[in-house]
Amino acid sequence: MINMDFMPSRQLALYMVKLFVTRSLAVLIALVMVLMMLDLLGESGKILAVEGNGEAELWRYVSLRLPLLASRFLPFSVLLGTLIAFTSLNQHSEVISMKAAGLSAHQILAPLIVASVALAGVLFVFNETVVVKSARVVNAWSDNDYHPVPPDSGVMSNVWLRSGDDYVHARLASGRGQNFRLEGLSVYERPEGLLRTITKIEHARPSADGTSWEFEGLTSYDSEMNLVREAQSGRGLAGVKPSQFKLADVDPDSLNIFDLAEDIEALEQAGRPAEAARAGWWHKITGPLSTLLMPLLAAVAAFGLARSGQVLLRATIGMALGFAYFVADNFSLAMGTAGVYPPWLAAWGPFLLFFLIGETVLIRSEE
């Protein structure tokens, strides 16, 4: 007799969730620790090469990078954790016992799906409150070659802007309104498309009337006269507004979903392309939801007789499906960023495709 309840047994559901969560978290901790050590080995030399940096800065880098690594590899850890749990259940004939009790494959997976939805919610909140702040700070710090950066929540790094025929590059941009500041500014003057002057500026801020910028610490090279000039202060960039620097570098990974929506609206009002930002906005939703797919893709390891000798093959197939999803997701997001795919399709396409693939494999495995 087939039991039609969504979760026929509370104890069984708790047992499955415990296996799922503990193994996923164990894989996540091990994976993040290994990746963090490898990352720190590669970056510690650059951090300590800056005068004044020491052990405290190394620990600061670790504290900033850990949330990013945990967020990025949680769905992958859920895949491996589910595969480990299902392989163990299969080898001990626990799945056979569940099916003998009248449970279908979907009922066996139901507790894991519910737990995955909860994990997706936690990951979404974690991304929007912790990860975006860490990404913004660590990106600005690394782009500044690990020199101190202003402790401002709106700090941006490596910002490029085009003003007419001229190009402007700012190493750091931070603040709001009249407190907006640029550091490490480079202005490339290109009348009629020919590079004539390169001006390096240590600090820049909007003028009081908002029509131009006030500069401090100027070094200018004139290519026509082959001459270098230096000045303590100056003015320039007439007509360039601070908002143009903010819109020049809209990074979805460094903005929460509400701030990103405001920047997308500002980009569209300014007549600038917003496909990359909109694809990133949709991916903020589908990224955490990928944890929902992992039990479905890994379920192929749970069904089939253990004595058939195909448990390892089934686990490999489940892992291959999970890897294929991550590859397809990154490829689709890149196409959406480039404007080849519509932003919503770039984010939702791989999710819906692999949801159907997972359901198909699950039904075929149950048969």
Automatic annotation (TrEMBL):
GO cellular component: ATP-binding cassette (ABC) transporter complex
Transmembrane annotation, as ranges: 12-38, 69-87, 108-126, 311-328, 340-363
GO annotation, biological process: lipopolysaccharide transport; transmembrane transport
Superkingdom per UniProt: Bacteria
Record's bilayer topology term: Multi-pass membrane protein
Compartments, as annotated in UniProt: Cell membrane
InterPro entries: LptG, LptG/LptF_permease
Pfam families according to UniProt: LptF_LptG
Keyword annotations from UniProtKB, A to Z: Cell membrane, Membrane, Transmembrane, Transmembrane helix
Key word RNA-binding present: no
Entry protein name: Lipopolysaccharide export system permease protein
